[in-house]
Amino acid sequence: MIIGLTGPLCSGIDTFADILKKEKGFIFFSYSDILRDEARGKGVEITRKNLQDLGDELRQKDGLGVLSKRIIEKIEKGKDYVIGNIRNPGEVEELRKSPGENFILIKLEAPQEMRFQRLFQRRREKDPETFEEFLKMEARDLGVDQAKHGQQHAAVFLLADKIIENDTTVEDLAKRVFVLLGEIQNP
What is the pLDDT of residues 149-179, one digit of tens each? Predict the structure, then answer.
């Protein structure tokens, strides 16, 4: 099984993936990790903007599903995977075509103010410091003024098979993950 994750910034994608890894033995792949490796190989500073630009460049050059193709090459049949954070519909399309694998796309949601507080609390280098900067970053993620090969989160959200609200605690999210997993595995 392959579970793809999407959602706005700080909606809980990494936490969702960690729950599946630690509690259910899923193997995790991240588009960001692929882009970090690519950036290192090109000597590009690893920043959110640079990784986004690099992803946009790769999708423009090698097709909208290029990052998913790289992940699919690493997938072994019969194992469970969680993949985050899908930012372009071409990546979803490529995963849906993966032969012999059951793919489901999950969107995580959380209120905007809550997500900003999570971002502020995590204190990553180069994260926005104001709500206005956060909104600007989120606009790019959603696809505002972006080309088809760019960040297209809003379009990916429309492709979600299931939606999980992550607006309380990590423990509540874990419960929701396990309920969802039960639904997926025993339809």
Answer: 988 999 999 999 999 999 999 999 999 999 9
Listed by start position, the domains of the chain span 2-173
User: Within 13 A of 39's CA, how many CA atoms are on the CB side?
Assistant: 19
One DSSP character per residue, 30-73 reads EHHHHHHHHHHHHT----HHHHHHHHHHHHHHH-TTHHHHHHHT
Angle, alpha carbons 148-63-47 (nearest 5°) = 70
Q: 2-173 has which fold? A: Rossmann fold (3.40.50)
Residues 6+ apart with CB under 8 A from 99: none
CB 26 within 8 A of CB 2: no
DSSP H stretches of helix in 143-169 = 153-157
Tens of pLDDT, residue by residue over 120-156, are 888 776 778 899 999 998 998 899 999 999 889 999 9
Cβ–Cβ under 8 Å, residues 146 and 93: no
Residue 113 CA to residue 41 CA, distance in Å, equals 36
Q: Is the pTM of this model over 0.85?
A: yes
C-alpha dist (Å) from residue 89 to 1, 79, 105, 145: 19, 24, 11, 16
